[in-house]
Amino acid sequence: MTNSVDEIVDNDAMLVIGSNTTENHPIIALKMKEAVAKGAQLIVADPRKIPLVKFATLWLRQRPGTDSVLLNSIAHVIHKEGLDDKFFIEERTENYEVFAKSLESFTPEYGEEVTGVPAADIIKAARIYSSAGSAGIYYAMGITQHVMGTNNVNAIGNLAMMTGNLGKHGAGVNPLRGQNNVQGACDMGSLPNVYPGYQKVDVPAVKEKFEKAWGRVLSDKVGTPASVMTGQMIDGTLKGLYIFGENPALSDPNTTHSVKAFKSLEFLVVQDIFMTETAKLADVVLPGASFAEKEGTFTCSERRVQRVRKAINPPGQARSDLDIIDQVYKRVMGEGNLEELPDASAVFDEVAGLWPALAGMDYKRIDGAGLQWPCPDKNHPGTKFLYKEGFSTENGKALFWEVPYVKSDELPDEEYPYVLTTGRELFHYHTGTMTRRSAGLNAIAPEAFVEVNPANADVLGVADGQKITVSSRRGSIKLKARVSNIVPPNVVFIPFHYTEAAANLLTNNAMDPVCKIMEAKVCAVKLEK
Q1: Are 234 and 241 in contact (CB under 8 A)?
Q2: Residues 276 and 247 sit within 8 Å (Cβ to Cβ)
Q3: Residue 429 predicted with pLDDT over 90
């Protein structure tokens, strides 16, 4: 997030797109409701009538996979009506003229044709967002898990820049992270192309810096994204894999393909706190410790680094992730004292010494509520919002991007006439590794379901609660119909928590060409009674 969670209540306007916030980020949703109570105008853009819609000034019901067209059409109106922030554009950005020219074809009428959102509502959204003193955009995986996910994010950035809604309080571009420490994992270098602090592995000066710190010759080759590894496992290029804290045998789109890939490996190690669907495929399972059983830090969506403190001992032979990785490293490299356990605070200090944005932090300073990076020195209070003085580019200016219309990889046809989209529900989390072990949560949300619009249910002759078969080109599952106007006609929704009716058996593993994320949010399916 460029801005902070506490700033949400000071937004004059909010655009929430691709995020079922009340069910996936309920604490942040409370802040949004508080902002509305204070007078903020809320625009919700979502194909489903999510609970947040009842608090919205305006609901834009775009067709799944048409987010960038909707955003471009809003931008078209802002530019055409002269509602853009010309001073901010001139002083803080570049490439605006090229971007503005690319918007010419994205009229509200064209936007309506592609997205299904009335042109009048596109115009209204543009005026609400651009006229606000401070406006924030909030999005989640409903924006990113598409073959054009990078385009969608660029379109969001364009909209914020052209209205001057970056570098100030109560505004910004704010991705809502899907896991509690996704931000922290990325910060620490758990990406194929960077070291900690997003320092690129193929930049000679960065390579030299880390070689000096670690006393090792390092590769300058960019690694392989997880989604690309699947094909490499199947063709034999990748022979061994080490997975921890992830359950891709249930969470990857087209999971039949993923499971085939894992079974093709010569050797698979899974490190986790439970025997997940992925762990069951492993040659070796290493029992990890939960958050309450180890020391360390988490970094949340707003860049806040917080202490995690050991409250209880891990059960049985379970050990912290850091201890396990340290023990494996020492055995592989044949060096180090096996009896000497790593110190989490010392590891943090090492990272702080190599990443300027963390340089002012240590365990003592983050002992209370934590600090938000950048925090460059010991007297710095942390940064509530980014880009106040400039952007982190050579000239301090941000770049506008042209965003062409790219269609989803798989759209409905005669054989598969419905669009399937997936997501989470309030009472379960991700693949249910933890929440489905809770008797209380299972009592409330015991089984999978598929939301079907009443018009489609009538045609199929399906009643609420009746089991139906949902099939795609990749597989079939049986689950109960939930007949509801939450979904529009010809669109169905399935939560992906349930292994006995795994939505990702159906979803498409086509990838965004830039970031290599898979298209979990749009695929074609058929329904059978």
Answers
A1: no
A2: yes
A3: no
Supply the pLDDT for residue 322. 95
| 430 occurs within a structural domain | yes
State which of 110, 144, 176 marks the end of a domain. Answer: 176
Neighbours of 394 (CB within 10 A): 6
Q: For 176-223, where are the E strands, in sequence order?
A: 194-195, 199-200
Q: Residue 86 is part of a domain; what is its CATH number?
A: 3.40.228.10
Rounded to whole angstroms, how far apart are CA atoms 305 and 362? Answer: 10
Residue 398 lies in a domain: no
Measure the CA–CA gap between 433 and 246, rounded to whole angstroms: 10
How is 351-383 classified by DSSP, letter by letter? HHHH-GGGTT--TTTTSSS-EESP--STT----
Q: Is residue 369 over pLDDT 90?
A: yes
Residue ranges of E strands in 405-490: 418-423, 449-452, 467-471, 476-483
36 to each of 57, 91, 451, how far by Cα in Å?
9, 32, 29
The CATH number of residue 324's host domain is 3.40.50.740
What is the CA angle 197-201-204, rounded to 5? 110
* 350: containing domain: 182-372
With CA atoms as reference, report the closest residue to 503 among 468, 529, 471. Answer: 471
- Same domain for 163 and 188, yes or no, is no
Which of 135, 154, 176 lies at the terminal end of a domain, its last residue? 176
Q: Tell me the whole-structure pTM to 2 decimals.
A: 0.95
3-class SS at 223? coil
Structure tokens at 131: 């006229």
pLDDT (0 to 100) of residue 519:
96
Do 355 and 445 belong to one domain?
no
Same domain for 22 and 98, yes or no, is yes
Q: Please give the sequence-ordered ranges of beta strands (E in DSSP) within 281-402, or none if there are none.
A: 284-287, 296-299, 304-308, 371-372, 398-399
- What is d(CA 460, CA 477) in angstroms, rounded to the nearest whole number? 17
Query: Model confidence over 56-106: pLDDT tens digits?
Result: 999 999 999 999 999 999 999 999 999 999 999 999 999 999 999 999 999
- The reply to whether 311 falls in a domain is yes
Domain total in the chain: 3
Asked whether residue 441 is assigned to any structural domain, the reply reads yes
Indicate whether 241 and 223 sit together in one domain: yes
Q: Tell me which residue has tokens 């050797």.
A: 267
Average pLDDT value for residue range 135-146 = 96
Give the whole-angstrom CA distance, residue 71 versus residue 89: 18
The contacts of residue 235 (CB under 8 Å, 6+ apart) are: none
DSSP secondary structure code for residue 341 in this structure: P
Same domain, 40 and 157: yes
188 and 158 in one domain?
no
Query: Do both 165 and 192 map to the same domain?
Result: no
Do residues 221 and 170 both lie within one domain?
no
**Contact between 432 and 505 (Cβ < 8 Å):** no
Q: How many whole angstroms separate alpha carbon 230 and alpha carbon 236?
A: 10
